[in-house]
Amino acid sequence: IVAEDGSSYISRLFYLWLDPLLRRGQRGELTRPTQVYHLPQKLQTSVVCQHFHRCWGACRRGTGVDDQQDCRSRWDDRSLLKGSGHEEVLELEGDVRLLRVLHKAFGLRYYVLGVLKVMVNMSSFAGPLLLSRLVNFIEDTKAPVTEGVWCVLGLFGTTLFSSVLQNIFVFEVSKVSLSARASLVSAVYGKALRVSSCSLAGFSLGEVVNLMS
């Protein structure tokens, strides 16, 4: 079961799609790894690797982001999910800078989350300012009561807003990092399968394991 896919925005915001799984865990019904939810479709290894491979090819050809095979526009391509179920080792040919491929594959999502992080930091600065205003209100005996009420509501609202955004940021950044890690691990593994025995003769088994790690 992929519970996150198809859930509403409210369910994703408050993680309501996790409630059935948490209730099963409370009853002690989660005894095997297969009983938990699967990853969303766009985080599955086959989809992530196909996405990374397309971005690699686009960088090797020097195509722009508005190309017909733009990797971001095909991120949710459902055709990648169809097939025999066997994952194929993708060949990453050409001399391409890895940082450029990662930027093309995951840069947009990461930068959007950066804007979200800026909003979190800005809202966190509002707390001390409102607290100072509240202290001034307490010290001023002639200040209207509505000013104190607005300060308290502002403190509550900014704290709640910052917590919600921070939670979204951490969860979405973990998805981006998981996708990037899966892409790199698959690329290194595919490279290792294609390296000739003559090239590996100069390395011991421990050195090869360390390099792949």
UniProtKB/TrEMBL annotation:
<keyword id="KW-0067">ATP-binding</keyword>
<feature type="transmembrane region" description="Helical">
    <location>
        <begin position="150"/>
        <end position="171"/>
    </location>
</feature>
<feature type="transmembrane region" description="Helical">
    <location>
        <begin position="110"/>
        <end position="130"/>
    </location>
</feature>
<dbReference type="InterPro" id="IPR011527">
    <property type="entry name" value="ABC1_TM_dom"/>
</dbReference>
<dbReference type="GO" id="GO:0016020">
    <property type="term" value="C:membrane"/>
</dbReference>
<dbReference type="InterPro" id="IPR050173">
    <property type="entry name" value="ABC_transporter_C-like"/>
</dbReference>
<keyword id="KW-0472">Membrane</keyword>
<protein>
    <submittedName>
        <fullName>ATP-binding cassette, sub-family C (CFTR/MRP), member 10</fullName>
    </submittedName>
</protein>
<keyword id="KW-0813">Transport</keyword>
<dbReference type="InterPro" id="IPR036640">
    <property type="entry name" value="ABC1_TM_sf"/>
</dbReference>
<keyword id="KW-1133">Transmembrane helix</keyword>
<dbReference type="Pfam" id="PF00664">
    <property type="entry name" value="ABC_membrane"/>
</dbReference>
<keyword id="KW-0812">Transmembrane</keyword>
<dbReference type="GO" id="GO:0140359">
    <property type="term" value="F:ABC-type transporter activity"/>
</dbReference>
<feature type="domain" description="ABC transmembrane type-1">
    <location>
        <begin position="112"/>
        <end position="213"/>
    </location>
</feature>
<keyword id="KW-0547">Nucleotide-binding</keyword>
<dbReference type="GO" id="GO:0005524">
    <property type="term" value="F:ATP binding"/>
</dbReference>
